[in-house]
Amino acid sequence: MKHPLSIAAIIAGRFSSLTKPPQKHQDNPDIVLRNAPPAPREEAEPGPRAGLVWSPGFWNYVGGWYVWEAGHWELDRTDQSYLKPGWQKVIHGWKLQRGEWRITSISFIKQGNNAKEQDNAAEAHYDPLAAFR
Fold this sequence. Notes:
This protein has one domain. It is built from 2 helices and 9 strands, in the order αβββββββββα. It has helices spanning 4-16, 106-120, and strands spanning 32-33, 52-55, 58-62, 65-69, 72-75, 80-83, 86-90, 93-97, 100-103. A hairpin with a 2-residue loop joins β3 (58-62) and β4. The protein is flat and about 85 Å long.
């Protein structure tokens, strides 16, 4: 037992790689908690602006803690509606609903399919010697 501290450091180093560092936004969007989140903070909603949608602040759940995410502006999207973030009461507790855009028109889907078809279409190749042939 000449080096008990160094052995403990080696063991701790081996097992420290098994834990993941906390992430700001968790990949799992379906967070359901038993206890209700804190009451929302009072936040002044700014007046409407052309081409923008206000997303209000909400309590996010990060690494076992509630973290206040301040409100912000989102760019308005045609044929889509913005679902505001917040907590919803469900059977097993409270579920976090993050802000997201939802498609409200079929024309938006058709436009996306047309764009994919145009990308897949064969393009005319540029021939730099065509003028000399």
